[in-house]
Request: fold
Amino acid sequence: MNVLITGAEGFIGKNLLVHLQERKEVVIQTFTRSDDLASLPERVANADFIFHLAGINRPQDPLEFTTGNVDLTRALADAVRGCGRQVPLLYSSSTQAAADNVYGVSKRGAEEVLQELQAQSGSPVFLFRLPNVFGKWARPNYNSAIATFCHNIARDLPIQINDPQACINLVYIDDVIRCFLEVMHGEHAGKVFVEVQPQYSASVGDIAEHLRAFRDSRNSLITEPVGTGFMRALYSTYVSYLPQELFTYEVPKYGDERGVFVEMLKTRNSGQFSYFTAHPGVTRGGHYHHTKTEKFLVIKGTANFRFCHLVSGDFYELQTSGEKPVIVETVPGWTHDITNIGDEEMIVMLWANEILDRELPDTYSKPLSAPIKRN
Reply:
């Protein structure tokens, strides 16, 4: 399939271009501001699908709204008519097309040009009245508040908020591109106006607070719930604006004669992730919990785990090593320890179902007296 993208150097265009480059069956042509308008008919003649993303949204001269949105769209429509084929065309319009401001009028005018094209030539036209789009590669300090907030907060620069309660409607760039590709593959045939889903609504103040929490999590180690929905998309966007020197950050390390203990990540309601090391012959643990539970995974070395029931005295012992991934659970009411019975440093990943509270750790010392089993 031969695809033509106008506005390929813009925010949406860059993301679309990368996704299309992942598909070997797609041959891509682009048309950008640096190209001669006279070259457009030839590119349209070779196209099987057109993504019309070019446009003007913040000109120095308001007349550029007409030339950049309506006139360019008319030239593109004329090129489609002239090629003698019914070439499907997708247009990235704006929710502002329903408004009477200068920008909205120009976007609505471009829509009307394309609807006329469809009526006259039968070329399928798909119109996307996009709300605010956010995601990687949007230009900060331009027309995206989220891009500006992400850029500034990641660098500890101030941001300006006029009305924290003001709500904005949003779509995430990956959802936009997914829907665009669905249209290209014929999944929305027969529609003229197509909506990207899901759409989000959030206040400017809440967005800023979330972004500050992402930044501060490097110190607290407490991550926000970034696995699904809007928070997933917002966190991905924030991280994409980190300067290269902030791609890494240190976490605290606590060491003694036994080895080291490092806390990596904490969650608000699903515990924390850590790791620890133990030198050969070192035993760690020797305590029990009333409610806290843990999962251990030896990723290097050989470990001997021992358990003893606090009431019955039942004893259980097992060995694991980094050669075979096995999760070992600690069980409330059983005192337990872990010993490095190998000849090299042991490294163990650890998940606990709650964040360590050093004032109330739910950890009570009770060393085991049974001998340690060795190979």
Remarks:
- The domain at 134-172+201-249 is CATH 3.40.50.720 (Rossmann fold).
- The chain has eight helices and 20 strands.
